[in-house]
Amino acid sequence: MELNSNVTIALKKLDNNYTIYNLNLFNLQYIDEGNISINKIKNNALEFKVCCHLCEKEHIYIYSIKEIVKKDLIVLGCEKLGIPLVVLGKKEEVEKMIYPHNYVNYKINVIL
């Protein structure tokens, strides 16, 4: 069985849009954003620390590499407000969720 280690990750920015990165599971720590840190921890797991600009707290999520590879989509959100902060998974699934959101935000900004 061939392991696909590619993952797409979308991060919510201050302007309420998402930036999409296409990465490999082994270089996730190279994301150039100040509001997230990704660290490999024991037992082949990744720890995601996300600074939430909505509730101003740090949210911590731990997922095994196996879970990330198996699932089509994982949404990491603000626990207080229920708003997605990070979306990761297969490229097609992440884009299907994020592109409409960014498009609506673009239209709202054009109107304003």
From TrEMBL:
This is Uncharacterized protein. It comes from the Bacteria.
